[in-house]
Amino acid sequence: MTPTTREFVPAAVPLGRPASSPHSLQTLASNPYALRIVSFAIVALAWEWAGRVPVSPSFPTFGETAAALFSMLADGSLPAAFANTLVPLAIGIALSSVVGVAIGVAMGLNEKVEWFGVPIFIVLQAAPLAALVPLLVLAYGIGVTTKVFVVCIMAMPVIVLNSFKAVRHTPHSLIEMGRSFMANRPQLIGKIILRSATPVIFAGLRLGTAAGFVGAILAELLVTPTGVGDIITYSQSTADYPRMYAAIAGVIIVSVLFIEGLGWVEQRFLRPEKRSAS
Amino acid sequence: MIGLQAQTAAPPLAADAAPIVEVRGLSKIYPGGVEALNDISLSFPEGELTTLLGPSGCGKTTLLKIIAGLLQPTGGEVRVRGRAVTGPGPERSFVFQDFALMPWATVIRNAAFGLELRGVPRSEREAVAEKYIASVGLKGFETKYPHELSGGMRQRVGLARALAVNADIVMMDEPFSAVDEQTRRQFQEDMLRLVAQERKTFLFVTHSIEEAVYVSNRIVLLSRRPSRVSEIIDVNLPRDSEPDQIRRHPAYLDTVEGIWQTLKRYLD
């Protein structure tokens, strides 16, 4: 993330204003981390307040939830549950990424593949996928296979459609440039089209990963309660709401960390021009 | 900035030079029925800078892209050194109106890209690219990315890329139209120097009369769409003079005025 400095400001002061600025609030607001912390704090406070009112007897405060989260981290139950949940999740996301990007790129490069494939993924994206889970249980039983499938049907459509659009929207002039300098088809795809599509493909991967996390938890709630899904259902049945929300918060944290990591990998290895800009 | 001392003596008359590119009976109708070119025949002499000049949307870019092999004509043919053009070739290179630089690649990689596509080893192609980056005035910017450069500098990278492949014919499609006026003048002068140094054939498209007269040996005036050749003008300016003297020279002013009188007819 680059702060919003205007291009013609010559001096190399990317952050903040001069210290002489009378508005310390402004200085604070131009620090990229300050506003994030403020935004997080507002949500936490609102949560704490809502828990104390309470809006519902089954809605714990932020403090209770955080305490439950730390106790589950301390006794090792949450990490153990994640180890369980991550198996179908990791397989599903890896599969959706590789297969999804391949299908999307193929659809972007070839119109016949597009006509064949796009309707399927648009329908999949629009379908209420949770409703399909019982069908998958019938077909594949209650094992890991079904859970992997749930992750895939959640994650794949957005990965495929983003990769497709990314390839299809390669700037025409770059393709013309490649052709005029005598690029053959593999060079055109490898050196121009895929490189130009990278940012949007990665945006799709991030969205797909987020959907995949939802899918993994959904599978544990709807198929068989294991891992984090088990903590959620069990805590709910024993009215231990702080634990239940702590498990949900844990999923969100891991998901966000993973998506941020994906963004970092993209910037670090695939977007050299972004690195030099910061 | 850079003078014209390097300029060769008076350019040869157009008629003396052998044509390197011949366009015969070319026509182009776009899908949807827009007729861009109608039966154009032209020849481009070797070693000269010929400008295609005409009103906006008159099909001059279309003509240039057909010669480049980027577009297929509906009828007629283009021959380069007697061989019919079916697609892009190593003897032709192109400078794009919107620069067409790869944003993820550094200046040197962009400039060396034509050689990279031809499989020239990295150290070799970077040495060539470095030389041309320096000759377009971008020495020291090799490791910058396009978004760190101004529009004029980006187009210099585009020019370096086109020169680095050592093509005989360099085609430029309104290369300065996305560049501000000051940069544009400086660029025109640098280009004249490069034209003299490189001894290549340049085909240049512009809609600016002044620019066409200032940089060309020969100007092909195109009529409104569907384009036909309206007039061919040989420009004879004292190329060894200083740039501002050329721009005040009666021959320069008269040619500009003459072209304006012709082009006026195509305005509504």
As a percent range, the share of helical residues of chain A equals over 70%
Overall mean pLDDT of chain A stands at 86
Continuous helix count of chain A: 12
Major beta-sheet overview of chain A: none
Residues in helix, % of chain B: 25-40%
Order of helices and strands of chain B: EEEHEEEHHHHEHEHEEHH
Write down the Rg of chain B: 18 Å
Beta-strand share of residues of chain B: 15-25%
The computed structural class of chain A is mainly alpha
Can you give the mean pLDDT of chain B? Answer: 85
Secondary structure: number of strands of chain A: 0
CATH topology of the domain at 16-91 and 203-268 in chain B: the name is: Rossmann fold
What is the string of SSEs of chain A from the N terminus onward?
HHHHHHHHHHHH
Largest interface by Cβ-Cβ < 8 Å: A-B, 23 and 29 residues
- The CATH architecture of the largest domain in chain A comes to Orthogonal Bundle
Shape designation of chain B: globular
Overall description:
The complex is a heterodimer of chains A (278) and B (268). By secondary structure, chain A is mostly helical. Chain A folds into 2 domains: 1-67, no CATH class; 75-277, MetI-like (MetI-like fold), CATH 1.10.3720.10. Chain A is built from 12 helices and no strands. Chain A has helices at residues 24-29, 32-52, 62-74, 77-109, 111-126, 133-140, 144-168, 172-180, 185-222, 227-237, 241-270, 272-277. In chain A, helix 4 (77-109) runs antiparallel to helix 5, helix 4 (77-109) packs parallel to helix 7 and helix 4 (77-109) crosses helix 10 (227-237). With 268 residues, chain B is α/β, with parallel strands linked by helices. Chain B has a domain at 16-91 and 203-268: Rossmann fold (3-Layer(aba) Sandwich). A 6-stranded mixed β-sheet of chain B has the order 6-7-8-3-9-10, sandwiched between helices. In chain B, strands 2-1-4-5 form a 4-stranded antiparallel β-sheet, with helices on one face. The termini of chain B are far apart. The chains are: A mainly alpha (278), B alpha/beta (268). The interface between A and B is medium-sized, with 23 and 29 residues.
